[in-house]
Amino acid sequence: MNKDLIKVLDYSTPEILALLDEADALKKSKSKTRLDLKGKTVGLVFQKPSNRTRVSFEVGVHQLGGNCIYLGPEEINLGKRESTADVARTLSRYLDAIVARVFHHQDVADLAKYASVPVINGLCDLYHPCQALADVQTIREKFGSFKGLNVAYVGDGNNVFHSLMTACAKVGANVRFAGPRGYDPDGQILKKVQALAKSNGCSVTTGRDPHAAVKGAHVLYADVWVSMGQEKETNQRIKDFKGFQINANLAKAAHKDYIFMHCLPAHRGLEVTKDIIDGEHSVIFDQAENRLHAQKAVLLHLLKGTKQ
């Protein structure tokens, strides 16, 4: 069993499917309250603000009978006020698990290296595994299986895309990426995931043509063009991403029963038009809700049977 959840690549296909099954069961359960995490405390170490990640984890831990404590940048400044190693070792004496939302992947990797309790990556610059698990849960929920599905991602080859393409490759869904030059996914991560996809009978392709990516796609996926910390690049990014907006004209090429997904927050009128994100094909709030269920499944997977 994995000690941590740092990236989806660390989990096997059976492990991911087991997490999805658990998430589905939690979602269908008539009772929201369980005592699986009674006596356990989960710490949220956040360098970046959050809506969905913070609230879904706090609510999820509470629903599982545990306690949650939020530690923002004013309390813990990883690697500056105190070394990451010291933070990890100290928090391990108080907490049963750590959820880290950080700017740099090395910070969450170091937390996992030095902590003796499970560490969950709540987002870093390279990966967003919790989002990806909720994404594939939502896709399976809408289509019943992954076989033969085409997922089209239009925009920035960022942390969200890295985890999304990995999760899809693990479960057997095809992924097509379209983005402007200079915004491709990380080459080393892409190479690993393409090899993984091939072994699982699916594919991950990249290109510059959003129409080619979207043609016949069952899932259209967008993310913001300007993420937190990139505000100074706003004007340049808007210029660079011209032509990569998901709109009604582009969506015409998709499968007639396509769904639209977005990890949120969204900028209507930039990466997606209002009629698409608020239209009948959009599942963004089902997707957001599934963050709660998928993360509860992860917590149970990592904490079940640990010492209280």
Summarize the structure.
By secondary structure, this protein is an alpha/beta fold. Helices cover 42% and strands 14% of the residues.
Q: What key phrases describe this protein's structure?
A:
about 300 residues, alpha/beta, Rossmann fold, five-stranded parallel β-sheet, four-stranded parallel β-sheet, 12 helices
> Helix- and strand-based class?
alpha/beta
The CATH class of the largest domain turns out to be Alpha Beta
In N-to-C order, the SSE pattern is: HEHEHEHEHEHEHEHEHHEHH
Rounded mean pLDDT is 95
Using the coordinates shown, work out and report the CATH topology of the largest domain. Rossmann fold
Could you tell me the number of beta strands?
9
Total individual domains: 2
**Outline:** globular
CATH architecture of the largest domain: 3-Layer(aba) Sandwich
Beginning-to-end CA distance, first to last residue: 18 Å
- The value of Rg in angstroms is 19 Å
Low-confidence stretches: none
Strand portion, in percent?
5-15%
Give the proportion of residues in helices: 40-55%
CATH superfamily of the largest domain: Aspartate/ornithine carbamoyltransferase
Supply the number of helical segments.
Answer: 12
Main β sheet profile: 5 strands, parallel
Tell me the strand order in the biggest sheet: 7-6-5-8-9
